[in-house]
Amino acid sequence: MSPEEKSSNLSQPTTPSSRLSFPSRKSSFFTIIKAQVAVLLSTLSDNTYERSVSEISSLISDNGKSVYLHFIRRIVQAWQIGQVAQGSSQTSNYIGSPIHKLLIEQLTTLAENQESTEIFCEAVSSTDKSETLKNFDFEVFIRDLPLDVIRKTRLSLGLLQSPKPDLVAQGMGRTLMRICAVSLAIGSCSGYSD
To answer: How big is the CA angle at 185 (ends 107 and 183), to the nearest 5 degrees?
Structure first.
């Protein structure tokens, strides 16, 4: 390219449409999809459970892993809110609620094998400010889950891949030791739900 051509290219104004990049449109699109997931979860009830879960599944299958990670974070955040309410003077109706049921179903599925637990780790380890779980206490989380010891162990081991040192420590530390100690004490892993 000659110097004159370079100069003429530099002096041409950019049109608004050329400044809009595909990633910003894609980002806006995913923001809308994530908002849809949030609305479906916030309105989840016994009456709407099947329909809402079906719609969420459809959004996930149509839009991929980032929507699924957002979904997992949202149901873990619901657990956190339930914990805060239980610790306050308010009465919490979280345990046994549709969102609690959904959390247990999802974690049971994710803990089926060690590879799937990496998805759980990725979801709770997000470093994106808008997606970060604040003060996530994995030790309390895992203790309160009605999962067997194998699934709890898999979820704990999954956190070893976290970029957050505090989550690695929680997965590796007392949580895993406690699960193993209880498992050894009862002599069997089947049917155990700490």
So the answer is: 20
* Tokens encoding 133: 């779980």
Find the radius of gyration of the CA atoms of the chain.
Answer: 22
**Using 50, 70 and 90 to split pLDDT, how confident is the model at 3?**
low
Q: How far is CA 35 from CA 40, 54, 74, 160, 167, in A?
A: 9, 16, 11, 30, 27
pLDDT tens digits for range 161-191: 888 888 887 777 656 666 666 666 555 444 4
Most confident of 3-7, 38-42, 136-140, 150-154: 38-42
Q: Are 99 and 134 in contact (CB under 8 A)?
A: no
* Two structure tokens written together for 64: 């991929």
- Residue 170: count other Cβ atoms within 10 Å of its Cβ: 22
Q: Tokens 């247990």 sit at which residue?
A: 104
